[in-house]
Design a protein that fits this description.
single chain; alpha/beta; 7 strands; globular
Length: 282
């Protein structure tokens, strides 16, 4: 009797072990179980900084107003200093040493960036800054944004006039063409030499009148094969924040008036060649 009972117990235990073993084999382990599908990533929250950046750029962009001059030349009045505009040729004016006009603001900054060059070259007498005298330098790398710097002398401050400023404009236009400088920025720098006897807006009007008429003459020389072809691409007239609106108000009509003067000029050639068809299109 004992043997059959033992055999039944053994068979029952074996059967239970088989069931348990089969169940364990069919249960996936942690290492082989398929990974659950990843939940879609939530959209990234917009960056406050990136959203604010366009507004910041717009707020810090210097005010500027552009007028169309003859020969496709844009003239932009811009609120910026002479050390900051990245152009081919930056222009500033300079009274002579005897005038005793103290540098302030942008002229102080410019002189400092150039290691005192402006003061030293003028006070040494090697550039006397006589009226309409010019000096061109290539600034040290990183000193200012422009590739080259042109100084135009104004001579004795007691003799400064609007007529002189118109002549300065013409000289700068011709120097820009001679130097093959496509982009030009002009800073009158009168207030920056403690000079306030001429109206700032009217100075801008006279300078741009002279520049536009002077550049028109250069363009006619090119059209008549009397000078190689070259076109100015952009002219910037720099104005301080306190004078920007006045300069814009007076430069605009001056550009329009100068354009009318250009249109009324005779087409008679200066020499024997006359305008060349297809020669220059400035």
């Amino acid at each position: 009797m004992d043997y059959p009972l033992k055999r039944c117990r053994a068979a029952l235990i074996a059967a239970c072990l088989a069931v348990v073993t089969a169940g364990c084999a069919s249960t996936p382990t942690a290492s082989t179980a398929p990974a659950a599908p990843a939940a879609p990533a939530a959209p990234a929250a917009p960056s406050r900084q990136s959203e604010a950046q366009p507004a910041k750029d717009q707020a810090t962009a210097p005010p500027q107003t552009t007028f169309a001059a003859p020969h496709g030349l844009p003239v932009t009045v811009k609120e910026i200093g002479p050390a900051e505009e990245p152009v081919d040729l930056q222009v500033v004016t300079l009274f002579n040493q005897a005038s005793g006009q103290a540098f302030v603001e942008s002229m102080t900054d410019l002189d400092s960036r150039l290691g005192g060059f402006v003061t030293k070259v003028r006070d040494s007498g090697q550039f006397r800054a006589d009226a309409l005298d010019t000096l061109v330098i290539t600034p040290p790398p990183g000193a200012i944004a422009a590739r080259r710097l042109l100084f135009v002398g104004l001579g004795d401050s007691s003799k400064a006039s609007l007529d002189l400023m118109e002549k300065v404009g013409a000289v700068v236009a011709r120097e820009a063409v001679r130097l093959r400088a496509p982009t030009v920025a002009f800073a009158p720098t009168l207030r920056d030499q403690s000079f306030d006897k001429l109206d700032t807006g009217q100075v801008g009007a006279e300078v741009m009148t002279g520049a536009i008429l002077g550049y028109d003459t250069e363009a006619r020389l090119q059209q008549q094969d009397l000078d190689p072809c070259f076109a100015l691409k952009h002219w910037y007239y720099e104005a301080g924040a306190s004078y920007f609106s006045d300069v814009v108000e007076k430069v605009g009509p001056a550009v329009k008036k100068a354009a009318a003067q250009v249109s009324s000029r005779s087409d008679q050639p200066f020499g024997k060649t006359g305008p060349q068809a297809g020669k220059c299109h400035t």
